[in-house]
Amino acid sequence: MADLTPGSPRGRAGHAAGRNGREESASEEKRRVQLEPNTEIEQRLAFPPCTPQHKRFSASPVTMETQRYRKLWDDNMGFHQEGVASLFCYIMAAVDSFYLLYREIAHSCHSYVETLALVGAWYIAKKGFRLICDSYGLLRVYFIPRLVSRIDLVKHYGEWAVVTGATSGIGKAYAEELARRGVNLILISRNKEKLENVSDSIAERYKVQTAFIVVDFSKGREIYPLIQKALNDVEIGILVNNVGVAYDYPQYFGLVPEEKLWDIVNINMAAATMMVNIVLPRMIDRQKGAIVNISSASCYRPVPQMAGYSASKAYLDHFSRALHHEYASKGIFVQSLTPMYVATNMVEYSGILSSLPWLAPSASVYARHAVSTLGISTRTTGYWSHSIQLLLLRSVPEWLFVYGANIWNNILRKEALSRMAS
Ligand SMILES: NC(=O)c1ccc[n+]([C@@H]2O[C@H](COP(=O)([O-])OP(=O)(O)OC[C@H]3O[C@@H](n4cnc5c(N)ncnc54)[C@H](OP(=O)(O)O)[C@@H]3O)[C@@H](O)[C@H]2O)c1
């Protein structure tokens, strides 16, 4: 019997022979693994039977890595202990497979990362460009006109202006600013006494001609023939559609009285539409004129608890911009004026708004700035601080704006209700 113990010469030779044999069979198996990577090795590692999915998995670098460790074990340990060998293979493969997997994912994601980087760069460039345009817009509308000579409104548009809702707030202040620039005025409002007072005081103070028409715009269709008749003999150069009503305080639509909803339709939308209908044909004939529709910053996005009001202002804004496209070539300038809060009777329900002049300027400060944008911008808040506020508000996503507006209007409503109760 041959001595095959490791210490004996034959044993050593036998062992060497055995080792050579194992090395041969190892290199033989290595070749086989390279040729048939998915068959025998998989069976030895007790992989589940090959399904089409499994085939795909087997071909992956992770499985190949397991096989590589199996070879490493066989070559170096020189014997098969299936349980330990498999465990070793799995542990080593698991360690390496993380890295391999990461490399694979990183490799396949490389193009996605580049695409995302491009999208990010495009977004930043777009925002940057917008910021530059907005800053230039602020300079162009509010600051440059102060440096150069002002537009001569009489020469540009005509001698007479009509202002609706001219007995208080923005309308009255706008009328005064026009008079300060030498424009004669026809004031339209519902209260004769107030109209007389405002009309006389403007005529006296600014040495311009004034007249007034007493109508209630909430009456609807019946009033317009009267206005048309009264304006028949006058060349209207500027029409300021200022008259407007809002809810008494922010409120859910279902709780707003029906009468108020009709007022919003008749006063905010119908009045401006019909006034344009009356003055536009003569402006077209003369190939000059300006129409200012006082909308609101609430036209830009839906405002909860101001649904009817903000929608009526969106109507005015769209109406103005479309009109400008239609008649700019005929020498008619149409402006959509979209103020934020202005301290007038309309926001009297809130002490917060009246106490923050940077948020809500007085009507006269507002009107001075707004008139200086006439002929320069077709759509503006009319006041630089309002434009900055709007810029910030419009930079947030709409859902966030609406959420914030709802909270803000809740605060204002509660304040108004507690003021009414006390
Ligand atoms: N104040 C703001 O924070 C703000 C913000 C954005 C937009 N706006 C818009 O700016 C415009 C002017 O607002 P305001 O704050 O100056 O309002 P206001 O102070 O309440 O003045 C409204 C003017 O319209 C007249 N008026 C109201 N209802 C009338 C009717 N049925 N018929 C005839 N005249 C009527 C009023 O006459 P009486 O004097 O007889 O009441 C008053 O002269 C509105 O279109 C409003 O939507 C205001």
Question: What report would you give on this structure?
Answer:
With 422 residues, the chain is α/β, with parallel strands linked by helices. It is built from 15 helices and seven strands. It has helices at 9-35, 40-44, 52-58, 61-77, 82-147, 153-157, 169-180, 192-206, 224-231, 258-286, 307-327, 351-354, 363-372, 384-394, 398-421, and strands at residues 160-164, 184-189, 210-214, 236-241, 289-294, 332-337, 379-380. It has a seven-stranded parallel β-sheet, sandwiched between helices. The longest helix is centred in the N-terminal third of the chain and has 66 residues, at 82-147. The radius of gyration is 41 Å and the shape is elongated. Residues 1-18 and 39-59 have low confidence and may be disordered. Residues 165-171, 189-191, 194, 216-218, 242-246, 267, 294, 296, 339, 341-342, 344-347 line the site of NADP nicotinamide-adenine-dinucleotide phosphate. The site of NADP nicotinamide-adenine-dinucleotide phosphate (NAP) has 29 residues, from helix 7.
Query: How are strands sequenced across the largest beta sheet?
Result: 3-2-1-4-5-6-7
Determine Rg (CA atoms, Å). Answer: 41 Å
**Spans of at least 5 consecutive residues with low confidence:** 1-18, 39-59
Q: So what's the oligomer here?
A: single chain
Net shape? elongated
Q: Count helical runs.
A: 15
Structural class designation:
alpha/beta
User: Helicity range of the residues?
Assistant: 55-70%
Along the chain, the helix and strand elements come as HHHHHHEHEHEHEHEHEHHEHH
Total beta strands: 7
Distance between the termini: 118 Å
Strand residue content = 5-15%
